[in-house]
């Protein structure tokens, strides 16, 4: 279902999706809708109501997605601990696959204004990366691991459930299965 707040309307998605949706997201500036199933990410144009692109992740099962504020890059977290970076202008295959977590990735997030992104996992850690996207299309994105954040404890085999960045500060919030929300600000 898609809810249009300005008109106070709710409608069914106007296109057929293949598989059960795991995660969804909107493009930050255009009328594009991303829906992730267990195996792939499908990109739909909401105005033309058609499929634009299908992104093949090559992972066992997708768990979460996040869209870069520029809209042309996507990160995908998977249940086998892999983090895939897609550059929509380059290919439908991942530009870079990072094997950073030994357990399931439960959440991924881009920062709105800083060149940062993060992933969190059931291994009770959150990884913060520097992810610089250049306006020059001939220059590939720069991805550098910055920090491994620890502090949550495991509860029933679950670790960090989700992570989100502060809208203006370079701060990361994590929510754990241990019923604690942590703020990392340094």
Automatic annotation (TrEMBL):
It comes from the Eukaryota. This is Ribosome biogenesis protein 1. It comes from Castilleja foliolosa. InterPro entries: BOP1/Erb1, WD40/YVTN_repeat-like_dom_sf, WD40_repeat_dom_sf, WD40_rpt.
């Amino acid at each position: 279902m898609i809810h249009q707040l300005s008109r106070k309307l709710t409608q069914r998605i106007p296109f057929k999706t293949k598989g059960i949706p795991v995660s969804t997201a909107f493009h930050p500036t255009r009328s594009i809708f991303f829906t992730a199933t267990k195996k792939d990410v499908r990109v739909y144009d909401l105005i033309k109501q058609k499929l634009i692109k299908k992104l093949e992740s090559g992972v066992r099962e997708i768990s979460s997605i996040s869209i870069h504020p520029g809209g042309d890059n996507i990160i995908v977290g998977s249940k086998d601990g892999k983090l895939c970076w897609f550059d929509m202008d380059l290919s439908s295959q991942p530009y870079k696959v990072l094997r950073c977590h030994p357990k399931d990735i439960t959440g991924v997030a881009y920062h709105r204004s800083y060149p940062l992104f993060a992933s969190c996992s059931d291994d009770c850690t959150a990884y913060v990366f520097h992810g610089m996207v250049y306006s020059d299309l001939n220059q590939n994105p720069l991805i550098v691991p910055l920090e491994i954040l620890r502090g949550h404890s495991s509860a029933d085999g679950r670790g960090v459930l989700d992570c989100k960045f502060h809208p203006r500060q370079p701060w990361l919030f994590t929510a754990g299965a241990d019923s604690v929300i942590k703020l990392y600000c340094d």
